[in-house]
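2024-03-11 09:14:02 INFO receiving multi-entity request
2024-03-11 09:14:02 INFO entity count = two
2024-03-11 09:14:03 INFO echoing inputs for audit
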Amino acid sequence: MKKAYLGIDIGSISTKGVVLDDDSNILAKEYLWTEGNPMGAVKKLLAELEKQFDKDEYEIVSTGTTGSARKLIGVMVGATIVKNEITAHAVGTLNFYPDVRTILEIGGQDSKIILVDNGVVVDYAMNTLCAAGTGAFLSSQAKRLGVEVEEFGKIALQSKSPTQLAARCTVFAESDLVHKIQMGHTRQDIIAGLCRAVVNNYLNNVGKGKKIVSPVVFQGGVSRNEGVVHFFEQQLGTKVIVDENGPLMGAIGIAILGRRARARKKFDFAVEDMEFRTREVSCGRCPNNCEIICVYRDDVLIDSWGNRCDKGALRAGTRGESVK
Amino acid sequence: MDAGKRNIAFPIIANYNCIVKFFIEKGMDLNYIEQPKMTRRTLDVGTKYSPDYVCAPFKSTLGSMIDALEAGADTLIMTMGLCRLGYYGELQEQILRDLGYEFEMINLASYTTGNVKDYYKAIRRLNPKISLSRFTKAALIGLKMLEYIDEIEALYYRNCGFEVNKGEYRKAYEDFLMAMDMVNGRKDIERQYRKTRNAFREIRLDKPDHPIRVGVIGEYFTVMDDFSNLGLEQMLADMGVEVHRWMNPTNRNLHYKGQKNLGVQISEYSRFEMGPTSTANIWCAKNYAENGFDGLIHVKSAGCTPEIDIMPVLENISRDYKIPILYLTYDSQTSDTGLQTRVEAFNDMLRMRRAAI
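2024-03-11 09:21:47 INFO inference complete, emitting structure
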């Protein structure tokens, strides 16, 4: 039986999964919306992945999770490796583009830049306090304009003179946008302006002070937006590569990291049928009131976290209702 | 606690309240009120009554003052400062009075005139019958305590990530801090210090010859106070990193070489003092870079102008020495998930770089 490696990337907006073989060929891949329910999304994801590859020929020996819900899902699927999305993205991209120098990434809630030299990550930056210019901003503006966010790119490219929008801050951009709509700017100009604002915002915040050298790879959900890609190319004066598997890069990266690591554990698709439940418990043993997240599988506590000290430590294996 | 004496409190700042306590109790013969350690409640209360755009140290010290008043303090001391911090005592006093608290405020900023003798006025105000010799003696012992605390803390973060049996370092370190909270005099302090040094020496380490070394620099309060920076140094140490931090009162205040001496060493990067810790931080970053550190982490609270000002300079250092810098901005958030992601990725990156060389 041949070996296969599962990687799952659970972001704020979308959930991605891949199954790789020993040569990093994709045996199965899936991309779907998280819809505020990471556990449910992963169950759906696993059901789709299961159908796509030959279970008699391959056996999944390592499982990796990344993305903002990596810890929760890591517990749920019994991951052998749980890693942050920055490392996962870098590893995934380097696998397909070994000579890449700059990786731009704009996701649902965060954006990052990764600088690579000779196949080694040498610097990275991630947006800190502000979510300006991320996918979430684009989709909320799409709603305002009554356009599907998937259509944004095509509409933006039709514009000849994109509207100038204040790009520094989401709040300013939004009020500026409302103003420009009322002034009578056309929809395509505004949408093109929005795409350009995202690019400017990214370069001014995350990319500030970083030397962007080509080849440049652009990833994350927003990379599917042709308008943003167009303005990146315009601003950087270089070609921006968008891989068709771009959104899957985090999942691919974590699958590769799982393959490289030593830990091995056979993955069982039975997880799909198990009942998972989380509960937030306020510790209450000191005024800090740590929010402890408890994860239950079929009513048995399998893990908990969030406590800052030993007072709040809960023992795994206890029955659900016996825990305060 | 003696009745009839003033009950003095000071907002919690990293591990240094035991020194203030020693000073107040032994040197000034007054009562010291110890508020509980900072918790999320402290920060919530502080944030609630603070202007939104003020930096996070204002919020946590205000919360800590309220904790102290609720614990029975009748006199609050607030430090002076070289940035906006210099105005904080006055504003905090006003906020607390508006909330209806009754207390006396000794705001050291109003005694900071350039003439050291004026601080004596503040001391006389706290206790008019103070004995100068007793006070001086306690002050000197307090400074020794400060040096020891900083030294032990530095040793702790450099080594605790490499211990063979997890938790041994933590225990020795916590024992030390607790002992410092209870010391009576010079002999006590010396004994506890030596005891902790010995305890540290006994702990078995599994440390490589060239461990990953990270220098932590940044804004005075947030970089030192592990509650405010969400345990950044511990997080790094737990990833097997040797953590260095120059910024502490011993280095920045007690043995500070001064703008003239440090400024000349960084003249290619900056010619002027930009704030209370900017010269020190630029010098420190350059020094770490020259000494072959793997990476730097710059810590600041949101809206800290002096630290924002030095970021372009740090970028130049990063480029010249090819040393990556992670910039972290803290506000009154209490979730460390985002921090964990960034620090973990930073650590991964340093290790990948190391493996490539």
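2024-03-11 09:21:48 INFO post-check: Chain B touches chain A at residues 36, 39-42, 302, 312, 315, 318-319, 322, 324, 327-329, 331, 337, 340-342, 344-346, 348-349, 352-353, 355-356 (CB under 8 Å).
2024-03-11 09:21:48 INFO post-check: The CA atoms of residues 111 and 245 of chain B lie 30 Å apart.
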